[in-house]
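Ticket #4471: structure output looks truncated?

Reporter: J.K.
Steps to reproduce: submitted the chain below (228 residues) through the standard prediction queue, then opened the result file.
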Amino acid sequence: MDYLLNSLDAALGMIAHLDREVLDAVWTSLYTSLTAIVLGALLGIPLGALVGLGRFPGRRLSMTLLNTLMALPTVVVGLVLFGLFSRQGPLGPLGLLFTPWALIAGQVVLAVPIVANYTVAAVAGADPRILPTALTLGAGRLRGSWQLLLEVRFGMMAAIVAGFGRVIAEVGVAMMLGGNIRGSTRTMTTAIALETSKGEFAFGLALGIVLMGVALIVNLFLHQLQQR
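Returned output as attached by the reporter:
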């Protein structure tokens, strides 16, 4: 028990004194996750709107695929992208492996299905009269769809928040594509895994506290959006 209490005291001290390595890991996590969720939203929201509003052959299969991709293991994503970004892979000449951009690419792959599925659900729960009314008033289908998305904007925000919560807490992709390089690709999750295995429990605990704080804020915000 003394070990846990002493570690907690040391962890809180690192946070209070803004330990440099703690800040670096927190910054890398926030920077990569925010970038990934912006890109993921730019891809996922139009995809979700297309699936939710479209009436095309294979729509049911598309929804099944999106649901399946939500549960895709992060190590599988990391494995496939590692093959693409490695020196022998088709994207090897770009030199992305073990850089923040490789990490962001993996997080985008994880975020898109989540954002798209939340978008599909938001569109499905909208008033079905919105789009026909917009079309009747002379709006084109694209403009009518945009009006519908504006009506379900809180659902869109919930999609983005949920996606952000997913990517900031993952470790498999970050470890495989980022390499856990100090000052470059070391995120909170990879630092917790590495430093704890080296016996630096207090350092891992400090990052764990920060990560839990971020998760709490994200979930509170998501709860507020869902209430609306």
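Triage note (M.O.): checked the attachment and the full token line is present. The CA atoms of residues 83 and 89 lie 6 Å apart.
Status: closed, working as intended.
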